[in-house]
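ESCALATION

Customer reports they have been waiting on this structure for their group meeting. Please prioritize. Original submission:
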Amino acid sequence: MASGGLAGYAPFLRQPAQRIPLYAQGDSTFLKEAAAQIQALAKLSEVKVFEDEATLQKEGAGAPVAIADGNHLLLKIEIDVAAERVRLGKEIDRISGEIGKCRGKLSNESFVAKAPPAVVAQETQRLSDFEQTLVKLQDQLQRLPA
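Update from on-call: job pushed to the front of the queue and completed.
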């Protein structure tokens, strides 16, 4: 199991020496058996295992969640909600701009006709990736507490 997917959130949200809790839900037997090792390796203050996802979401409202091998992992980080809304808004604007650029290229008949198929495929993939990222960012924005 890896908590690396959540690591990107930690540096700008806490002091490096500050230990934070990990909330987890999934394979309870495994999570409880591995809690001490996970806590030591990830330098966490605690590993709290929840039996159901609803309680996990309630306790960790607005926190980033990663899913690894069917286990939901949530770093319980206190964040500046207003600053996070601004950050997400800027990122949504940037990604929306990139989507516009990709759609512009792909809707240009000259580009599609003259560009090698690999370049068109690459641009189509970029568009798909940006659209997926946009959905994730919008979901994060929606999940922030009011």
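Sent to customer with the following note: The radius of gyration is 19 Å.
Escalation resolved.
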